[in-house]
Specification:
Chain B: It is found in: Cell membrane. Chain B: GO terms for molecular function: branched-chain amino acid transmembrane transporter activity. The complex is a heterotrimer of chains A (288), B (330) and C (403). Chain A is mainly alpha-helical and 288 residues long. Chain A has eleven helices and two strands. The N and C termini of chain A lie far apart (45 Å). Chain C starts with a helix and ends in a 9-residue tail after the last strand. Chain C is built from 13 helices and 15 strands. The chains are: A mainly alpha (288), B mainly alpha (330), C alpha/beta (403). At the B-C interface, helix 1, helix 2, strand 2, helix 12 and helix 14 of B face helix 1, strand 3, helix 3 and helix 4 of C.
Chain lengths: 288, 330, 403
């Protein structure tokens, strides 16, 4: 494989990896802080995507649409948390079920509103160019996605290690009772975390729009992938999600060339292998 | 104890009478419900009882179904086919269980999901044998020694009988000393471990038993449907059977069976009237979780107690036995 | 003990079951087919309205309903009672819905399905229950070969026709070497093998076949492969959102304009043309329908469809429309709704469809129809498949080719 082809594949794998990272980061933080398995996370991704599509149809620019979608989805996240999630803290089985049910409702409502036909989203004019890598042509937008992913990772790192809220969240992951005992409004923190996770999912959805489009069933596809990323990376660890997502992105891309007949299984196999060797995920904490 | 026997007899009577009251379609539907009930009860065993939530249980179901489909043309003996299905799925459950049980709740969920998907992908990929995505016909006549069973009532009887057998088996297991130990493990694993019980072995035992039963349900399905495709192993299906367990009531033996009936009934009839059936199903699920507190079974117990002004605790089949007054010795 | 709670719940569920069983007719009798004397006819339509096939389901449904509306809700002079069911593209669910429609609702004729896997699952049941199935979409070749049935008639197209129609034109007019790409599942393989036969018979050579997994997001890997191989043309079968992404990425990665892209009907159909827009310009496809086809039937059809639904019809809308039409004509010709009478008439039945004239080939139960070699051209700010050549009376072999 020539260098230029390798670079194209590498960048492609990274771009998709970053998309997975964005949505998985939200999922894993929600899981780590609130112990909630949010099976409706895929539908939040879907909503972000479709909403941006609608905004852009109303002549908003891609960037405005992005901001709006993320904001609206975050608000939806707040509503979901206050109305539903509140009531099932600590009850794992109930969570799986409730979020599963919510996923059904949201996905079908989206279908009701936007119809069944697959849609596309245009690449923003600013980024609509390509760079040449040897004889290959590579769309610049994908590089942009990689950039955003790295930026997000940096942001999260800064947030976590250098701000007070970050410290609270880290503490919350470690010991919720203690945080509460310290007088911090755990409820507000939780709502904020959930909204944040929802916003991230929407971000991923909008950025993914020009790459994968919008179609019925997209929420299940992305949910399974992000769950796998979370597992491989370790519950609650966004760093793990970062590494895990990149891994998955790369394996998906290169796996297609090297093991074409195994393409369905490869990612699942990876997850099984990781779970057997290191059951808590790459960056997860030892679980009792 | 007497109450249970009475209820059981009532159930037998109803099961016996139903075929004469229902249309051919109804008989067909109830036969399918019996199969799903067995499947649901097998999942209910590890969920409500050993506390293991699996999103890949359909994998075992698929093993059972495909065993019948693949071996059917070569082994005309139905008993053998059923036997192989049970053994194969049980064995797989044993092997995978040994690996998976180490992991805790969420990871267990994910690794079982992966397992189910792996089997799904296998069925899809091995086209020459399984027909791949297009699925394959099952040409294995159901013959239990009294001639080929083809009529709806015949199939119904077999499925009903299978259901009753499985139910009794599970009851027996649950009330046995082994069963009580497993229940203890779910309630407080640390305590049981401290008491000297090898927690893992008991969990593994339960998981194996559950997997074998799921495979049994799958093989029955092969005989019933006469067609299998990879979707029998998909995580969607695993999710659906999990819904059946929750709807019916986790922690009870019969709950999942009732959940299965309700679920199939709803899935069938709601979709006829509206295309928006996922919203209805999803909303129902959400309501059930928020309000249900334990599925239909407990709902009814609550309802009943409200009507009759009696204070009742939520009781489980799996709860430790109430100490009868007479047994208290001073 | 929850004795009483259990009792109630068991009673409840039993009542529900009894109600469900009785909600059809309680008279149990396996066969239900029409006596031909009634003046209402019940039609069961099995489509995949959830999942990735949902857009096709909607189009088929729209087409079918349009025909009913145009004909006073009557087919063959009989009033129509129609029941739509969702099979979730899952053969197991489809079988359950089938039983409900046939055994419970006692429908006279079945229409559907979209997925070939579902069609194969239904095939034996349909034979056993002796009920006619009008296949509005499922394109699997075997429905005309090993799984052919006197009770199943296709009104759409077969994978064979779809794959082979453009082969000769492409070899003669575009290039002699091709890379063929299709998703890794039965339909993909069937389309490519049909293309290969037609293309190579006309002097071309398929130098490489690539089969990405179904539902692939990203084709960068495969497109770089193509760029390396440098064929004279690329022939790709991709449907739905996969197809949309492929067309976009073909453009994104700089292949558009460098290596001609071609494909079967999907790349010239509205479902892909509308969302992809300019990225689809220049693609040559072998289509069987486009809203711009110049014939009288089509002009009327497009006008009526647009008025009713506010959008252009696509190939699948025509599939639905023609399914209704063929039932109408068949009943009128046979003078009855009895399956055996209809079979005699369906074999060889002929009529004008918005796609052109079609005839059901009795040897394959598949439509003999025109295919149009069309190039996606920009016209008045729209991408329109402009017809370059008409291939008339496209058939398919009677038996699977030995290979």
């Amino acid at each position: 494989m020539s260098l230029s082809i390798f670079s194209v594949q590498l960048l492609t794998g990274l771009a998709y990896g970053m998309l997975y990272f964005m949505i998985a980061a939200g999922l894993t933080i929600i899981l780590g802080v609130m112990n909630i398995v949010n099976l409706a996370h895929g539908t939040l991704f879907l909503l972000g995507s479709y909403m941006a599509f609608t905004f852009m149809n109303q002549q908003f620019s891609f960037w405005i649409a992005l901001l709006l979608s993320v904001a609206v989805t975050a608000v939806i996240g707040i509503i979901i948390e206050k109305l539903f999630i509140r009531q099932i803290y600590g009850k794992e089985l109930e969570q799986v079920l409730l979020t599963f049910g919510l996923a059904f409702v949201i996905a079908d409502t989206a279908k009701w509103i936007w119809g069944t036909e697959p849609q596309t989203m245009a690449v923003p004019a600013l980024l609509d160019s390509s760079i040449s890598i040897g004889p290959m042509v590579f769309p610049f937008y994908r590089l942009f996605v990689v950039l955003i992913g790295c930026l997000l990772a940096l942001l999260l790192w800064y947030f976590e290690s250098k701000t007070r809220i970050g410290a609270i969240i880290r503490a919350g992951v470690d010991d919720r009772a203690m945080v509460s005992a310290l007088g911090i409004n755990v409820g507000a923190v939780f709502t904020g975390v959930f909204a944040f996770g929802a916003g991230l999912a929407a971000l991923s959805g909008v950025l993914g729009g020009p790459l994968i489009g919008m179609y019925t069933g997209m929420e299940s596809d992305i949910l399974v992938t992000s769950l796998i990323v979370v597992v491989i990376g370790g519950l609650g660890s966004w760093k793990g999600s970062f590494i895990g997502a990149i891994l998955i992105g790369l394996i998906e891309t290169f796996g297609k060339i090297w093991f074409p007949s195994l393409s369905m299984l490869i990612v699942f196999l990876l997850m099984v292998v990781v779970l057997i060797i290191r059951p808590q995920g790459l960056f997860g904490r030892e679980v009792a | 104890m007497k109450k249970n026997i009475l209820i059981f007899i009532v159930f037998l009577l109803i099961a016996f009478v139903l075929p004469f009251v229902l249309s051919v379609y109804g008989i067909d539907l109830v036969s399918e419900i019996f199969i799903m009930a067995i499947f649901a009860m097998s999942l209910g065993l590890i969920m409500g009882y050993a506390g293991m939530v699996s999103l890949g249980h359909a994998g075992f179901f698929g093993i059972g179904a495909y065993t019948v489909a693949l071996l059917g043309p070569h082994i005309p003996n139905s008993y053998l086919l059923l036997f192989f299905s049970i053994c194969l799925s049980g064995l797989l459950a044993l092997v995978t269980g040994a690996i998976f049980i180490r992991t805790s709740k969420f990871y267990f969920l994910m690794i079982t999901l992966a397992f189910g998907q792996l089997l799904f992908a296998l069925a899809w990929q091995l086209k020459q044998w399984t027909g791949g995505a297009d699925g394959m016909k099952v040409s294995a006549p159901l013959n239990l020694g009294f001639g080929e069973i083809v009529s709806p009532i015949g199939i119904y009887s077999v499925m009903a009988a299978a259901f009753i057998i499985v139910y009794l088996l599970l009851r027996f297991f649950v009330e046995s000393p082994v069963g009580k130990i497993v229940k203890g493990i779910m309630e407080n694993e640390a305590r049981m471990s401290a008491l000297g019980y090898d927690v893992r072995i008991y969990k593994l035992l339960t998981y194996t038993f559950s997997g074998a039963l799921a495979g049994f349900a799958g093989s029955l399905y092969g005989f019933y449907n006469l067609f299998v495709s990879p979707d029998v192993s998909s995580w969607m299906f695993s999710g659906q059977v999990m819904m059946m367990v929750i709807i019916g009531g986790v922690g009870t033996l019969i709950g999942p069976a009732i959940g299965a009936g309700l679920f199939i009934f709803l899935q069938n009839f709601i979709s006829t009237y509206t295309e928006r059936w996922p919203i209805i199903m999803g909303a129902l699920l959400v309501i059930l979780v928020l309000v249900g507190k334990g599925g239909i079974i407990h709902w009814f117990a609550l309802l009943k107690s409200k009507i009759f002004y009696k204070k009742r605790k939520n009781s489980d089949d799996y709860a430790p036995q109430h100490v009868e007054k007479e047994e208290v010795v001073n | 003990m929850v004795g009483k709670g259990k009792f109630w719940s068991v009673l409840f569920i039993t009542i529900m079951l009894i109600l469900s069983g009785c909600s059809g007719s309680a008279v149990s009798n396996s066969k239900s087919n029409s006596s031909g004397e009634k003046d209402t006819i019940k039609i069961g339509v099995i489509l995949s309205s959830t999942g990735t096939f949902a857009p096709l389901a909607e189009s088929i449904k729209n087409g079918f309903n349009l025909y009913l509306e145009e004909n006073d809700n009557k087919l063959g002079g009989k009033k129509v009672e129609i029941k739509f069911e969702d099979d979730e593209a899952n053969p197991q669910v489809a079988l359950r819905k089938y039983r409900q429609l046939v055994k419970n609702e006692k429908v006279d004729i079945l229409v559907g399905p979209i997925s070939s896997a579902v069609a194969y699952a239904l095939r034996d049941e349909v034979e056993k229950d002796k009920i006619i199935l009008i296949d509005a979409n499922a394109a699997g070749n075997d429905l005309s070969w090993s799984k052919k049935s006197d009770y199943i008639y296709r009104l759409s197209f077969s994978n064979w026709q779809n794959g082979s129609s453009a082969g000769e034109y492409l070899a003669k007019n575009v290039g002699k070497t091709a890379v063929a790409i299709a998703p890794d599942y039965p339909a993909g393989k069937e389309v490519v093998s049909a293309f290969k036969e037609a293309f190579e018979a006309a002097g071309g050579k398929v130098v490489k076949e690539i089969y990405p997994k179904l539902g692939t997001n990203d084709f960068a890997t495969y497109l770089t492969d193509v760029a390396q191989v440098k064929p004279e043309l690329v022939f790709t079968f991709m449907a739905g959102s996969d197809g949309i992404r492929f067309v976009q990425q073909y453009n994104d990665f700089g292949l558009k304009g460098k290596i001609p892209l071609s494909g079967p009907m999907e790349f010239g159909d509205q479902l892909i043309l509308e969302p992809t827009g300019e990225a689809a310009e220049g693609i040559i496809s072998g289509i069987l329908y486009s809203p711009w086809l110049e014939n009288d039937e089509n002009k009327k059809f497009v006008e009526a469809y647009q008025e009713k639904y506010g959008k252009l019809p696509n190939t699948f809308s025509v599939g639905g429309y023609d399914s209704a039409k063929v039932i109408d004509i068949a009943i009128k010709e046979a003078g009855s709704t009895n399956a055996e009478d209809l079979i005699k008439v369906l074999k060889g039945i002929s009529f004008d469809s918005p796609r052109g004239p079609i005839t059901i080939d009795p040897k394959t139960n598949n439509p003999i129809q025109n295919f149009y070699i069309a190039k996606n051209t920009k016209k008045d700010n729209q991408i329109v498949p402009e017809v370059l050549e008409t291939v008339e009376k496209v058939t398919m072999p009677e038996k699977a080719p030995a290979n």
